[in-house]
User: Fold these one by one.
Assistant:
Number 1:
Amino acid sequence: MPTIPRKAEDRIVAGIKRFQPILASAKSRDVNESDTVLIITDVLADVFGYEKYSEITSEMAIRGTYCDLAIKLDGKVQVLIEVKAIGLELKANHLKQAVDYAANQGIEWVVLTNGNVWRIYRVIFAKPIDSEMIAEFMFPELDVKRAEHMELVFLLSKEGWAKSAIGEFESRKQALNRFFIGAVVLSEPVLSVIRRELRRVTPDVKVEVEQICAVLSNEVLKREVIEGEKFAEAKKIINRAASKMLREVRDHEPELPPPAQDGPCDLPPVTS
């Protein structure tokens, strides 16, 4: 978790305490989208620390349509913010609109909020354009004494943006997701360690890496973890990291063989 600068922490704590009752009142009055945008603008300034008149842009035109708010730093739009009325439930079509805005401008980050619910998405520039939710928090439920709550707010703050906190958070989240861990478990280095430990405790039994992989795939790991696009993408990331590390080693040890691209776990499909 990144260290939150004291000045930013004090502002975030004071801002959360100030705006929680304001948002509760706005929801009880069921204020419209325009009034919600006004509140969000103040939250961006007084909680997240952006300059209200130079870094928060309203009604940004993108190819003939508009986005409610945008954060502009060093002359470049960094985040698009799609705001819905505080009493409106956030839905997939609201996100699609915001992501389309971002994709048209090459902007990587989108926030979808109704004031109470805040969701941070990374735009995936693929065909078709896609997105992934990186973080979510409920403003009325924020507890300034809980470090994990403070971190979520810090991700979207001006100071957090300067420290690339959202990127670090995403990397940590990715490293701890089940698909990534599943891919690590089925990687050659981990399988080799398991084989070594099995041989140590059962020296009279010959066990091969491929057999360990089969047991893990068929009997230990859940099918949903090791099948599908998310697992395949996690495996690619691990292979790229391993290849990079071995290239660096080969700069000093040129006789090393090239790294395996797929590893020993390319087995037949898991049987039911």
Note: The chain is about 50% helix and 15% strand.
Number 2:
Amino acid sequence: MTYDIAHLRSTEFSEVTEGKTVYLNNASTGPIPRRALDALHAFNAMRAEPQRITLEHQFGTASRARELVARLINAAPAEIALMVNTSYGINLAARALGLGAGDVVIGCDKEFPANVYPWMALEREGVRFDMVPCRGALPDEDAIVAALDRPGVRALAISWVSFATGYRVDLARLGRECRSRGIYLVVDAIQGVGACALDVRDTLIDVLACGGQKWLLSPWGTGFVYVRDELVRKLEPHAVGWMATSASEDFSRLTDYVRPYVEDARRFEVITLPYQDFASFVVSLELIHELGPRAIETHIAGIIDRAVVWAQSRGDVTLITPAEREKRAGIVAIAPRDALAASARLTSAGVVHSLREGAIRLSPHCFNDWAEMEMALAVLADGG
């Protein structure tokens, strides 16, 4: 399955494809498609005249977002709670899983801080957070699995895709290993969802958090958390929103204060959400579904394949990202001999990128083409 890349570039992403820059920094912030930007502006225009906003505009937007997210990761809408960022979803897991003194959470060294500090914060309550050392720059999955057998382990907190190296862990393997031991699998998926297709049923994930501003091409302040159905009714929210209970669904009886939480993942939402941003989130998700998550994954992988071959053919750079397709997603990390100088050359040439942990991070998306990556690699080669 393919899509018309030229049409996509001209109709939805001309602001980042027709200028003097090459945008290869989607692992930092993805652009907002034109149709999603229009939706954002339209909702903000209504917000300026609040008499035009109905409950359907607000809560219908949220409902549609849950439906589209669920479809993207093969979940049920009742398992999706809308969040404003990945960090909030990770904190939800850290606080709602009922961890206490003597419990151990396994993590991985060189993780993005959003999936470290919430677990470290539990140490004051007697929870131990053990980070498994990487093998070089990359996660050591064998060592992670072995760590699951340490006494007291209750949860594994892992990023699906490493922000710095682009390494994609085998979630299906880790899910099986965790489930067989009765250990929770908590996943930071912000660097994977949107760049790669994901099935939460196959991977046996318990809780997954993902912001929308990167690979989901949405505004800041959008995101979601997936909570496995069996856990939704078992876990109680640590931060309780005013619509977490069924009593608040009837706006004419808000002071009845009925205690039971709603039966789905909305119990974890802290309303009020930025509805204008979620209106844009909805339209971006619709575009991703229109193009096809698998088609997007194949397109991105094809661009990175050629960058991998280029890096492997040279003696003046080191390929940090694994060469195998199944071990990477939308990021290719390449370490030149002088990363700072290489980054400066790329910036001067108009190539938008990131410098992470001593390597140049290039991250193409559905709208990028090989010529843009080729230009970036040519700039890197100039310093060889």
Note: The first helix runs from residue 5 to 11.
